[in-house]
Structures are given as structure tokens and as C-alpha cells.
Amino acid sequence: GDGGVGLPEALPWGLLLGLGAVGVYSGYFGAAQGVMYMAVLGLGTAATVQQQNALKNLLALVSNGMSALVFVVVAWSAVDWLVVALLAAGSAVGGMVGARVGQRLSPWAIRGCVAVICVLAVIDLLR
Fold it and tell me: Read out DSSP for 19-59?
């Protein structure tokens, strides 16, 4: 089974490659990783938008966690642990609040939010 999240029994190579590419990109840059994960999950799974959003959050956690681990190992002395603690606390609270909000929003509202974020990101990049 797929645990009820619309994933196929055997993950297609295109989905795996897409998720891997976004993971590498987001580990290096991070900008718009959520939008890219949503796009890949939307194209590569039969999951609902709410399920895609949950999967996106899990994938971002793994990607960002791996990036943080590599940074800590490579540059231990450059880590400002107060900033790390503040970011971790803010991310945890934001993740919990975002998950609750995401469960309650309609698929159209989630798609609208993703679209607005995309447009704002493009505007910011073109400034």
C-alpha cells in the first residue's frame, strides 16, 4: 500500500529523479523549494493537494536536515548555535501551524497560495 498518500507501488524514475533534483537544489540554494516539490509531486503522484503539501514538508525537512548536518560537520566552528536554536524553534512552530492550516484549506486555496508565492518570487528575482 501507499499509506493513503497516492504514491504508486513502485515509484517511477521520473518522480525519483525530480525529487532528487529538487533535494539537491534545495540543499544548495533553498529558494522556492516548496513550490518545486509541489510541482514534482503534482506531476508525479495521485496524491491530493493536502497530501502533496504534507509530503513536501517531510521532503523539505529531510533535505534541510541533510544540508544542516553537512554544514555542521564541515564548518563546526562557524555555526552560531543561538541562531540555530532560534531557526529550529521557528521552523518547528511554523511547521506545526502550517500543517494544521494546510489540512483545513481547500485544494484551490493551497494552489492559489502556491501561485501567489511563485509570482512574488519571480517579481523579487526580476527586481
Answer: HHHHHHHHHHT-TTHHHHHHHHHHHH----HHHHHHHHHHH
Neighbouring CB atoms inside 10 A of 56's CB total 24
Query: Rounded CA gap, 53 and 49, in Å?
Result: 6
Q: 10 Å Cβ neighbour count for 95?
A: 14
**Euclidean distance between CA atoms 69 and 51, whole angstroms:** 27
* Count of other CB atoms within 10 angstroms of residue 6: 15
Residue carrying the nine cell digits 529538487: 22
Q: Give residue-wise pLDDT tens across range 52-85.
A: 988 998 999 899 889 889 988 999 999 999 998 9
* pTM check: above 0.85: no
